[in-house]
Amino acid sequence: MYQKFPQKIVATIEARMTSSRLPGKVMLPLAGKPSTERLIERLKRSAYIDEIIIATTVNVADDILEELANCLRVKCFRGSEEDVLGRVLAAAEANKAEIIVEVTGDCPLVDHRLIDRGIEEFFNRKIDYASNIIPVTFPIGFDVQVFPTKVLAEVARLTTDPVDRVHVSYYIYNHPEQYRLYNWSAEGEYYWPELRVTLDEKADYELLKIIFERLLPINEDFTALEVIKFLRANPKLLDINKHVRQKEIDEE
């Protein structure tokens, strides 16, 4: 039974075409549709998200993301390429968001069931930040982060550090003395922190293509657990991107 929450909950998707490792990755096709469209389809199934915003940049290369947003009838906000925190905050404030679900454009496999769990944890525990990434216990690509717009606005006033401005919630979860944090860890089959199902490099894309092409015909709303079981049943697929190094927090 889903609950009713009084505040406006908005998912912001940080996306741009000029990725250094795989330019244009957010529009690469997955089973016939752009990666960002697949991500949005999966987010739209959330029981709690009131609105979805593609938070992209003013760079002309990102015009295509605004066009996609219009086609899919979701919002688009365009802001600074370097100051991602400022961009996400402005996107949230422009759309009167009270709660932000932070989503990055390199996570097309995001599972709305995990997102909704994060939203429930956030409200039920009366905290400032809920996530499943500190530390990482789920496969990389099933990330969930939920926090109030007012907290992000406070962070924007407190820090000008470039790392904080690029990694939107970094300041929040690195100041537990200042904010009430909660992280839930993966259990059972969900525990697989070494697994990469995110989109950073060409090898990641090759694996994601296979996942979508194999699982979509079986279940259009396939779960994170179905992805995990599929890859455990087909371990040779893990060789495709096992060499890809996860970026450090201070890398572009």
Automatic annotation (TrEMBL):
InterPro entries reported in the protein's UniProt record: Cytidylyl_trans (IPR003329), Nucleotide-diphossugar_trans (IPR029044)
GO cellular component: cytosol
Originating species: Candidatus Magasanikbacteria bacterium RIFCSPLOWO2_01_FULL_40_15
Domain of life, per lineage: Bacteria
Name used for this protein in its record: Spore coat biosynthesis protein F
Taxonomic path: Bacteria, Candidatus Magasanikiibacteriota
